[in-house]
Amino acid sequence: MRIEESFKCDRPIGAAVTPFSTDNSPPGNDSSGDTVSLDDLLAPPLNFSMVDYGVYRSGFPDYANFPFLRTLGLRSIIYLCPEPYPVANAEFLKANGIRLFQFGIEGSKEPFVNIPEDSIREALEVVLDEKNRPLLIHCKRGKHRTGCLVGCLRKLQKWCLTSIFDEYQRYAADKARVSDQRFIELFDVSSLKELSTPVAISKCQ
Amino acid sequence: MRIEESFKCDRPIGAAVTPFSTDNSPPGNDSSGDTVSLDDLLAPPLNFSMVDYGVYRSGFPDYANFPFLRTLGLRSIIYLCPEPYPVANAEFLKANGIRLFQFGIEGSKEPFVNIPEDSIREALEVVLDEKNRPLLIHCKRGKHRTGCLVGCLRKLQKWCLTSIFDEYQRYAADKARVSDQRFIELFDVSSLKELSTPVAISKCQ
């Protein structure tokens, strides 16, 4: 693992691989008149966003997203589905020294829903471990399983439920589930508090 | 301005003021059994999210959001509306050494839309200036004016338009405007490239 190189705790998103001040690419299809080629453009995974310093979330990344993911200098990926990781994605992780943490949570549908609290708790422990950051949390669409994990992280960060659900719903959109939000509301974070020190500050002070 | 104190370039969101490992608050209304009181809970502004390291976005913050905003150690706020800043918000900024950058962009509606490119460009220059971070970008609801500014930032970061619009639409939801997305598509970032160096990395290396 390229620990030192990968841990850019505050690398601007998308800026690392293609510094703007050194763009020598030929004119492309950009109607703004800016000189940029399609090859230079970066495509974040579906539903991608920053969650916290060194913590990102998204839907399932595919080949088109790999150049963007390289700019994040990821150290780990938390994969929340039971299906085996695709070969192309596994090769990308190997080539970039990224560790995979898989928690096989079934993509259940309401009204039959069973979110395994133990898996979310173990995944949250991975998120809270400084050694694993920068990391990307993803499931299939970045809505339900990822939303539950991020919601529990927000609860640990003492966000009020109104704000936690507002964030959950922004990513789940018309697929938002009351059962997921109820899971977050009932999730007990007290046993995790000793793990949740302000992780990355030590990297900058 | 409390420069040194305010510039925590990777302070975990919501964790700075209330470290989880020192929670001595009495039991509250948390159904999870976790010991937390309503007074301890933090309420981010509407539509709040991290955009990049030291860059946040949201709707209009009010008094209830001030405790959360304190945890961000903001150095600046970029306010994109023409209306005078409310007294309570102005006092919060003064008390916390936060500088206000106001760009009076009218909240125009389609089909009559006129987004001032110069204002967005000047606001983007403020975002790109390391001295102003950490900063919060906000308008009224964090959808259109804020969405245009963030969209132009993403263009500068070489995100493809598909991803830029996907992000814009996540915050604008059913209020998404084709005119805003067209503005982002046509916005010429070439003159800003020399300003967009990977700002915060120097803080961590």
From TrEMBL, chains A, B:
<dbReference type="GO" id="GO:0052845">
    <property type="term" value="F:inositol-5-diphosphate-1,2,3,4,6-pentakisphosphate diphosphatase activity"/>
</dbReference>
<dbReference type="GO" id="GO:0052847">
    <property type="term" value="F:inositol-1,5-bisdiphosphate-2,3,4,6-tetrakisphosphate 5-diphosphatase activity"/>
</dbReference>
<feature type="compositionally biased region" description="Polar residues">
    <location>
        <begin position="19"/>
        <end position="35"/>
    </location>
</feature>
<comment type="similarity">
    <text>Belongs to the protein-tyrosine phosphatase family. Atypical dual-specificity phosphatase Siw14-like subfamily.</text>
</comment>
<feature type="region of interest" description="Disordered">
    <location>
        <begin position="14"/>
        <end position="36"/>
    </location>
</feature>
<dbReference type="InterPro" id="IPR016130">
    <property type="entry name" value="Tyr_Pase_AS"/>
</dbReference>
<feature type="domain" description="Tyrosine-protein phosphatase">
    <location>
        <begin position="47"/>
        <end position="200"/>
    </location>
</feature>
<keyword id="KW-0378">Hydrolase</keyword>
<dbReference type="InterPro" id="IPR004861">
    <property type="entry name" value="Siw14-like"/>
</dbReference>
<dbReference type="InterPro" id="IPR020422">
    <property type="entry name" value="TYR_PHOSPHATASE_DUAL_dom"/>
</dbReference>
<dbReference type="InterPro" id="IPR029021">
    <property type="entry name" value="Prot-tyrosine_phosphatase-like"/>
</dbReference>
<dbReference type="InterPro" id="IPR020428">
    <property type="entry name" value="PFA-DSPs"/>
</dbReference>
<protein>
    <recommendedName>
        <fullName>diphosphoinositol-polyphosphate diphosphatase</fullName>
        <ecNumber>3.6.1.52</ecNumber>
    </recommendedName>
</protein>
<dbReference type="Pfam" id="PF03162">
    <property type="entry name" value="Y_phosphatase2"/>
</dbReference>
